[in-house]
């Protein structure tokens, strides 16, 4: 579908703020997707606030800020929320844990340390797993040992795959599955599609769920989170979801709006 229907346009008119996915929505690897800048200009014209939202916890918010800047997009700290950020917020706000064994990249570790979470404790309060592209056996062994000892267990997000220009590559689900195979423990997951991510995002925006739309390319994270938390949903067919996968979605789980890419959404916003 390349044009927006009257019903979809009515939904779009009710959107007063936007949560915008990054990978597969705004860019693919280092390539800006067509129409991304036009979309952001339309939001600026309409004075609609937005927040860039990503489940990829292998990078820090500063990495995303620099990456966006390299693509010609200016984003402040308050406009970028990773699943790592949401996990830090949840641990510090909703638990008494102040130390953790982190299975994650150095970028994620830096964000935890800056927030005041001790990552060097001999007996940490909990285990946190992120999208660890530097995973090795020692980390896996340490995480499993702590989980066998009964430590609380969190994961930043549940994604099975990550979209790249090479195609789909393994994401955090491979790590979670390896740990579960050994310990039979499952984590509390914070990122999309779970409500904790929505809470952190809406707090940043100062908006309510019903008038906020999420724009993304995945059914099982972006769109599922919208449906679970009463957000409006805009699915772009520019990343992980193709026509066959969309056709398999039950009628009551289909997104509010389906468009081929961010450029089509920019053109739809021109009608507001």
Task: Tell me briefly what this model is.
The chain has 272 residues and is an alpha/beta fold.
Report on this model:
With 272 residues, the protein is of the alpha/beta class. The protein has two domains: 113 residues, Rossmann fold; 106 residues, HAD superfamily/HAD-like (Rossmann fold, 3-Layer(aba) Sandwich), CATH 3.40.50.1000. The strands form four sheets. The chain has a six-stranded parallel beta sheet, with helices on both faces. β6, α5 and β7 form a beta-alpha-beta unit. α2 packs parallel to α11, α4 packs across α8 and α6 packs across α7. The protein is globular, with a radius of gyration of 19 Å. The model has no long low-confidence stretch (mean pLDDT 95).
In total, how many domains does the architecture comprise?
2
CATH superfamily of the largest domain: HAD superfamily/HAD-like
How much of the sequence lies in strands comes to: 15-25%
Order of helices and strands: HEEEHEHEHEHEHEEEHEHEHEHEH
Helix content: 40-55%
Number of strands: 14
Oligomer: single chain
What is the CATH architecture term of the largest domain?
Answer: 3-Layer(aba) Sandwich
The helix count comes to 11
Radius of gyration: 19 Å
- Gap between N and C termini, in Å? 19 Å
CATH topology of the largest domain: Rossmann fold
Low-confidence stretches: none
The secondary structure category is alpha/beta
Largest sheet: 6 strands, parallel
Walk across the major sheet and give the strand order. Answer: 5-4-1-12-13-14
Mean pLDDT value: 95
Net shape? globular
Class of the largest domain, according to the CATH hierarchy? Alpha Beta
